[in-house]
Design brief:
The protein is of the alpha/beta class. The chain is 39% helix and 23% strand. Bound molecules: guanosine-5'-diphosphate (GDP) and magnesium ion. The site of guanosine-5'-diphosphate has 21 residues, from α1.
Length: 302
């Protein structure tokens, strides 16, 4: 059978399970996950290799209305993710009732001309009777090539999903070497893991106000030395992220280091700093500075 390859964009509202799906299919964490909306800020490739195919999944920020400069950047990421794809997957949280946000997400699918799949996610948490009316409703809204109930968490339905992907992908050579899982270099994964641990350990506005920049990433013979700065928007948030006697920063650092050591299979020395960058989310230049695709461009110029 001829080898197939191509790009699949995963779109959906915040919290639908896009990043979880990409991680499960890749079999390795490439994108951070949290119960909070708008965890993912950039598009990230997760590469799935099969005997007869390579499927490049593109995780994207959740589709939402634009408020800040960061929101604008996130929605531009969604737009860029659609460029040159072979299949679009709209993923929805089947636990949540259909609303205006879902209609808005559907508009994005309608604009796309090619093959589109609808993934009804989190079926591990809903009674089966809930599925049929949902499927009927979406059928009336848009002509999807396939509608597939899945659980990104338990892998239910994912084997079928992969089979359908391979079926619809064009014949072609792999785009990436077989041992590559993602297009996101390790130094940016490190920054994302630090951000994930801050998200997991703080509340309210703090998670949304956090950005992480890796200032140093040195690969030694026995360990990787990483220094990173956690940016927040206000002094009060800095206090929260540092914690009493530095306790929060220590917790975040330990959790991030342990996971990174597991993922990269090497010892890590992780040093963290916290700085205030007032209202960075409203500042397009700062938003750009925190975007890893742009940092990568800068690094390659140096
Ligand atoms: P994203 O914003 O679309 O990328 O969503 P995430 O992948 O970050 O997931 C949002 C939340 O939904 C997290 O708490 C996930 O653990 C949870 N989640 C994702 N997929 C499933 C699923 O299939 N079943 C259940 N029960 N929870 C899920
Ligand atoms: Mg995500």
């Amino acid at each position: 059978m001829a080898f197939k390859s191509g790009f699949v964009a995963i779109l959906g509202r915040p919290n639908a399970g896009k990043s979880t799906l990409v991680n499960t299919l890749v079999g390795r964490k490439v994108a951070i996950v949290s119960p909070l909306p708008q965890t993912t800020r950039n598009r990230i490739h997760g590469i799935v290799n099969r005997e007869n195919a390579q499927i490049v999944l593109i995780d994207t920020p959740g589709i939402h209305k634009i408020g800040t400069a960061l929101d604008r950047q996130m929605m531009e990421e969604v737009e860029q993710a659609l460029d040159g794809i072979d299949i679009l997957c709209l993923i929805v949280d089947a636990m949540v009732d259909f609303g205006r946000g879902d209609r808005y997400a559907l508009d994005w699918v309608r604009k796309f001309q090619g093959t589109s799949f609808l993934l009804l996610n989190k079926i591990d948490r809903i009674p089966k009777e809930r599925l049929l009316p949902l499927i009927d409703m979406y059928r009336r809204e848009h002509e999807f090539s396939e509608i597939i109930p899945i659980s990104a968490l338990t892998s239910d339905g994912l084997a079928e999903l992969m089979t359908l992907h391979v079926k619809k992908l064009p014949e072609g050579q792999p785009y990436f070497p077989e041992d590559q899982f993602t297009d996101q270099p390790e130094r940016f994964l490190a920054a994302e893991l630090v951000r994930e641990k801050v998200l997991a350990n703080t509340r309210e506005e703090v998670p949304h106000s956090v950005a992480v920049l890796v200032d140093g990433f040195e690969e030694g013979a026995t360990l990787i030395r990483i220094s990173a700065t956690i940016y927040v928007e206000r002094d009060g948030q800095k206090g929260i992220v540092i914690g009493a006697g530095g306790s929060m920063l220590k917790k975040v650092g330990t959790e991030a280091r342990k996971e990174l050591e597991r993922l990269l299979g090497t010892k890590i020395f992780l040093e963290l700093f916290v700085k205030v960058q007032r209202n960075w989310r409203d500042n397009p230049a700062l938003v750009r500075q925190f975007d890893w695709h742009r940092q990568l461009e800068q690094l390659s110029k140096e």
